[in-house]
Write a structure and sequence with these properties.
Belongs to the selenium-binding protein family. It comes from Anisodus acutangulus. Keywords: Selenium. GO terms for molecular function: selenium binding. By secondary structure, this protein is mainly β. Helices cover 7% and strands 37% of the residues. The protein has six helices and 36 strands. The strands form nine sheets. Strands 31, 32, 33, 34 and 35 form a five-stranded antiparallel β-sheet that branches. A four-stranded antiparallel β-sheet has the order 6-5-4-36, with no helix packed on it. Strand 25 and strand 26 form a beta hairpin. The protein is globular and about 55 Å long.
Length: 486
């Protein structure tokens, strides 16, 4: 009679010939062969909509063979109102792949306005997640001085790191990086004393190059009130990237992106952990800036993609930027996808030559100057036009594409349309009135190309407690914007 025997072999635990590994995948290419997504978790917002309801986490069925396909099958309301759920991350991801004791169990939900951080248990029932723990803002402020939490990434150590955009009063000078232990207890700040960035927003680390790079949105005291161009002139918004030692937390270089890099938001390295190349999407100037490691070990940057502003009539300015609010990179590092929230289009670029991206696909899924709106776009000859946007299942598409998420195999792109409730109300008041939605875009991952899947539509305007706004999306098994390889 045989018994289970554990032996350590090549850094993994082997049980009866089967290797027991940590969460995620050994490599980005291996992840591409992972199972097809069947569920997506979506952060949904009532904050700022005047409905007197808490934000919630929606579980959406994306299995085309399921009778509840493209439907919300579960809603987990938060225990408090006024949070403004925004981005999300995991307690553990592919960076912990070599640790068989680690598990991708808890979805981490930072609340941008209230400062609370929720840990959601997705393991007990992936279709109906439940609340595990709440990190209260008073605890964070007392121990670190940090507030306005945004991006959460798991670390190979089992800790969770969260970028925070300011202090409790909304001053950018108080921003930095919060460190939680594996059970969501506040440990302190990650960065060394005196090494906090100018502004906070997103971050990504590349351990083989001992580097973390963070981006800079702006002061919470400014962006929480809505977008005001005077705040940019007054220096309340960012235009820098901060280069840190990893995992040391020392600020070793600040890259000034200048007037071509205003409001740098999402930042991503290429997925290949050996590569010292990445991109950041600069929203206001609508450029994708490529950053790279120089031979001397310093970091440089250059504009890789420019989305030209469009001359418009009947809008707040004579020219409208695309406003790149999200982008991502396919797991094989072949394609980059970006969302122009104001123009209303999603674009696909081939980045096999990272310094020279080539536009290979584009689809309009909304925008300020779509047909039926009052805003007109001007062509070079002075004539005006509006963009045709397809209806999906009888629904006119509202707002513009904001957050995007790609399937592991790179063949399906999902898009939601809420940026931040205050900005939604300012630029797309119809979103606050009628709610958001989620779309699926079919992707040609061979030659390039994008097309709306007319069989998929999740209408957050038809929610039981009234229309809600939809933002970040996560698969239970990880994705190309949550997982980092070491």
């Amino acid at each position: 009679m045989t018994t289970d025997v554990e032996v350590v072999q090549h850094g993994t635990v082997e049980i009866n010939g089967c290797c027991k590994k940590g969460p995620g995948y050994a490599s980005p290419i291996e992840a591409m062969a992972g199972p097809k997504e069947s569920l997506i978790y979506v952060t949904c917002i009532y904050t700022g909509m005047g409905r007197g309801k808490p934000d919630y986490l929606a579980t959406v069925d994306v299995d085309p063979n399921s009778p509840s396909h493209s439907k919300v099958i579960h809603r987990l309301p938060m225990p408090y109102e006024g949070d403004e759920l925004h981005h999300s991350g995991w307690n553990s991801c592919s960076s912990c792949y070599g640790d068989p004791s680690a598990a991708r169990r808890y979805l981490v939900l930072p609340s941008l306005i209230s400062g609370r951080i929720y840990a959601i248990d997705t393991q007990k029932d992936p279709r109906a997640p439940c609340l595990y723990k709440v990190v209260q803002p008073d605890d964070v402020i007392q121990k670190t001085g940090l507030a306005f939490p945004h991006t959460a990434h798991c670390l190979a150590s089992g800790e969770i790191m969260v970028s925070c955009l300011g202090d409790k009063d909304g001053n950018a000078e108080g921003n930095g990086f919060l460190l939680l232990d594996s059970d969501f207890n506040v440990k302190g700040r990650w960065e060394k004393p005196g090494h906090s960035p100018l502004f906070g927003y997103d971050f990504w680390y590349q351990p083989r190059h001992n580097t973390m790079i963070s981006s800079t949105w702006g002061a919470p005291s400014a962006f929480t009130k809505g977008f005001n161009l005077q705040h940019v002139i007054d220096g309340l918004y960012g235009r820098h990237l901060h280069v840190y030692t990893w995992p040391g937390g020392e600020l070793k270089q600040t890259l000034d992106l200048g007037n071509t890099g205003l409001l740098p938001l999402e930042v991503r390295f290429l997925h290949n952990p050996s590569e010292a190349i990445g991109y950041v999407g600069c929203a206001l100037t609508s450029n994708m800036v490529r950053f790279f490691k120089n031979p001397d070990g310093s970091w440089g940057h250059e504009v890789a993609i420019s989305v030209k502003p469009v001359k418009v009539q009947n809008w707040i300015l004579p020219e409208m930027p695309g406003l790149i609010t999200d982008f991502l990179i396919s797991l094989d590092d072949r394609f980059l996808y970006l969302a122009n929230w104001l123009h209303g289009d999603i674009r696909q670029y081939n980045i096999e030559d990272p310094a020279n991206p080539k536009l290979t696909g584009q689809v309009f899924v909304g925008g300020v100057f779509q047909k039926g709106n009052t805003v007109l776009a001007e062509a070079d000859d002075g004539s005006t036009y509006q963009v045709d946007v397809a209806e999906v299942q009888g629904h006119r598409l509202r707002g513009g594409p904001q957050m995007i998420q790609l399937s592991l195999d790179g063949k399906r792109l999902y898009a939601t349309n809420s940026l931040f409730s205050t900005w939604d109300r300012q630029f797309y008041p119809e979103l606050v009135e009628k709610g958001g939605h989620m779309l699926q875009i079919d992707v040609d991952s061979e030659k390039g190309g994008l097309a709306i899947n007319l069989r998929f539509f999740v209408d957050f305007g038809a929610e039981p407690d009234g229309p809600s706004l939809a933002h970040e999306m996560r698969y239970p098994g990880g994705d190309c914007t949550s997982d980092i390889w070491i």
